[in-house]
Amino acid sequence: MSFGSSIGAIISLKNNKRKRSSQLARYAKNLGSGLGNLDDYKKLPKEELDKLGQKIKVENNKKRQRVIVLTAIIMIVLICIFWYFMF
User: Fold this and answer.
1) Which end of the chain is less packed: N or C, by CB atoms within 10 Å?
2) pLDDT class of 39 with cuts at 50, 70, 90
């Protein structure tokens, strides 16, 4: 590969790079928010940021609890099946 073609490849990769979005922007776009437009979340008042943070924490805790409960149920079923066939 000559020098010109390698530079061309670098420039092509640079120009075709996708725009990265923050987790907060994806959350606002996918699930919406009662707080208005979150594109410029750095300009939101401290109270609204705290409110949004608490809302996200509550949702994450609910998801985590659901995963723990499902895992416990599956483990209990597997242990019962194992116990049945072993004894």
Assistant:
1) C
2) low
